[in-house]
Design goal:
- This protein is mostly helical and 114 residues long.
- The chain has four helices and two strands, in the order E-E-H-H-H-H.
- It has one domain (2-113).
- It has helices spanning 23-42, 45-55, 75-88, 103-113; strands at 2-5, 10-13.
- Helix 1 (23-42) crosses helix 3 (75-88).
- The protein starts with a strand and ends with a helix.
Length: 114
Amino acid sequence: MGMTYLDDKRIAMYVRPCGSQSVELLRHVMAHELGHAHDTELMSAADRRAWLAARGIPASTPWYGCSGCTDFATPAGDFAEVYAQWARGASTNRSQLAGDVGRAQLAALARRFF
């Protein structure tokens, strides 16, 4: 429902009619894509290694998946999902790699990475 084009520094959102896409989901997707922008512009290789360690993701896990594929099971997608959880003040995210984070862990991750 959204795509961040890293080389172009552009985010595309694919908005559907209100009956098939909630405002909350649209907010989440936008926050997820903003997480990718934050990652691309501000995170270093050392920051990404620290993220993997903080989330308990093996260091050998490639940061990105295939171009255009869903990213919920990649470190880049995990970062974007946790960023979206933080940005929306939500209690859940859709990461398939390391899952939801509790309030205290989210606050610690935000202080360090966001």
